Amino acid sequence: MTKSKAPPALSRASSLTVQAVQWLRKALADRIWTGILPGERELCDCIGVSRPTLRLALEQIEKDGLVEVTHGKRRRIIAHPSVAIRTGPAKRIIGMLLAEPGYVRLPFQSGIFETMRDRLEKLGLLVETHVSAPCFSGRPDRALEKLTSLHRVDAWLLVHSPPSTQNWFARNHVPCVVAGSCEPSTLLPSVDIDHGAACHHAVGVLARAGRKNIALLTPKRAQPGDIESEMEFQSAVKAHRGAIASRVIRHEESVPGVMRSLDALLSRESSTDAIIVARPSYALAALTYLQKSGCRIPKDMALIARSDDPMLDFATPRISCYRAEAAVYGRQLADGLAEVVASGFGSHRRARQLPVFMPGETV
Q1: Yes or no: is domain 195-323 CATH 3.30.70.100?
Q2: What is the mean pLDDT of residues 122-135?
Q3: In this structure, which CATH number among 3.40.640.10, 1.10.10.10, 3.40.190.10, 3.40.50.1100 belongs to the domain 16-77?
Q4: Residue 134: Cβ within 10 Å count
Q5: Which pLDDT score is estimated for 356?
Q6: What percentage of the chain has pLDDT greater than the value 90?
Q7: 8-22, 286-300, 314-328: which has the minimum mean pLDDT?
Q8: Which residue has the higher pLDDT, 242 or 46?
Q9: CA angle 7-10-15, nearest 5°?
Q10: Do 92-193+329-353 and 195-323 fold alike per CATH?
């Protein structure tokens, strides 16, 4: 359906409805679509506005005679503006690459990307969003070649990308910044929370609380940040010179997967008295399932989440975790992207934000 590069995402300098109308008119002028407009959800993700704002913009271009609503409630394109809306001097473009659009709407992530967009806008850089699950597969080469040939951008932002995607950008020397961690052998600039430092610190917190047998609960399909976490977890345990026993428990990335892994841990009659959970959503699953299994938290089992999520505030007891600042992360991403745009491929700077420990009630 996509024929050429979509207009850049919106800034907040003026009315979002006005900007959304301009975005849609430019997309129609560039003949991004033919026949039928995409659905409202897809348009909201592309433009970066809410559904009420989008509907006001759609009503306006309908009044302008550019689209009409069909019996199936789809919007049929009936005219293309002959001249695209002039938006001032041409600006340099950042292509934000996602596997699925919902990720950027999560509370912490939305704070990151809002800050990033605002900072990039001040630097004269606009962000356009590209969603492509094939670009995040185990063999993304063909999809990435097509994407980067169709959309000429000054640098790419790879959001929550697997090693296969990162390696393609490194091999082909395509300017980019990774939002997340890279494998040590992948030489790309990246911005992330220092998950390894959080796990190292968590071992010390639990040791000072008198815990002697600590488990790390981590996904079987590990991301680079999970690998760093496991390395630092083992390093921290070794630093206690045998005073602490440890084990790594791997789980399938689902609630039933976490439950099965915890069942295996509890059925061994192990003396495990503390768990560090590598993902916040699975920390909530672990907490509730341990309580259901009869474990008293934190008397029988202490629990720490490696990172934070707003939903953890609703857990009882409140889960101890590590909290990062979305605004700091967003500024680091913007600065890294600006540096890559200025210098091209070759920067390997890795920025890491040290999170703050939030004690909670599970230790």
Answers
A1: no
A2: 89
A3: 1.10.10.10
A4: 14
A5: 96
A6: 53
A7: 8-22
A8: 242
A9: 125
A10: yes
Segment 39-46 mean pLDDT? 86
* Residue of higher predicted confidence among 41 and 2: 41
Sign of CA dihedral 318, 319, 320, 324: negative
State the Cα–Cα distance between residues 301 and 211, nearest whole angstrom: 9
Q: Which among 305, 301, 304 has a CA at the least distance from the CA of 273?
A: 301
> What are the start-end ranges of the H helices in the chain?
16-29, 40-47, 51-63, 107-122, 141-150, 163-171, 195-208, 224-239, 255-267, 280-292, 326-343
CB 158 within 8 A of CB 336: no
Q: In the predicted model, is pLDDT for residue 10 greater than 60?
A: no
CATH topology classification for 92-193+329-353 = Rossmann fold (3.40.50)
Could you give the count of Cα atoms lying within 13 Å of 169 in the half-sphere of its Cβ? Answer: 30
Pull the structure tokens for residue 357. Answer: 């420990």
* Residue that the structure tokens 């979305």 belong to: 326
